[in-house]
Design goal:
single chain, about 120 residues, alpha/beta, Rossmann fold, five-stranded parallel beta sheet, two-stranded antiparallel ribbon, globular
Length: about 120
C-alpha cells in the first residue's frame, strides 16, 4: 500500500530490535516517515520537541518501561495523536487496560498485515 503523503510521520515504540526491523520493512511499503523510540526518555523528548508525528504504534511490553504508562504520557502531552497498540498482549484484561490508558486501536500479534496497513491509513487521513 503506497501512500502519496510523505509529510506524515509515525512514531514506532518497541524495545525489541527484531520487531522494529520487521515494522520498518512493513512500513517502508508506505510513504510515511518513520521515527523509532525504545524507551521513555526518547518518547518524552519526541513528544515535547518540535518534531511532529501523526500516529504512534506501541508495543506494550517494553524492556524496563511500562507501555500502558507511556500511552498515558503521550495522551497527556499530545491528546490528539492516535495510538495503536501492536502488541503481544492477548488477554481481555490487558486489552481493557490498554483502552483505559488512552489507546485508540488494539492489535494483537501475530497480526494481519493488510488489516494493519488499512488501520494505519485510516488514522493517517
Amino acid at each position: 500500500m503506497k501512500n502519496s503523503n510523505t509529510n506524515k510521520t509515525i512514531l514506532v515504540i518497541d524495545s525489541n530490535k527484531i520487531h522494529r526491523l520487521l515494522l520498518e520493512k512493513i512500513l517502508n511499503r508506505t510513504n510515511y516517515n518513520l521515527v523509532f523510540a525504545t524507551n521513555e526518555k526518547e518518547i518524552h523528548n519526541y513528544c515535547c520537541s518540535i518534531m511532529s508525528f501523526d500516529l504512534v504504534i506501541i508495543e506494550l511490553f517494553l524492556c524496563g518501561t511500562d507501555g500502558f504508562a507511556l500511552i498515558k504520557l503521550i495522551k497527556e502531552i499530545r491528546k490528539e495523536i492516535p495510538v495503536i497498540a501492536l502488541t503481544v498482549c492477548a488477554t481481555k484484561k490487558e486489552k481493557e487496560k490498554c483502552f483505559q490508558s488512552g489507546c485508540d486501536v488494539f492489535i494483537s500479534k501475530p497480526f494481519d498485515l493488510k488489516r494493519l496497513l488499512e488501520i494505519i491509513d485510516f488514522w493517517m487521513m
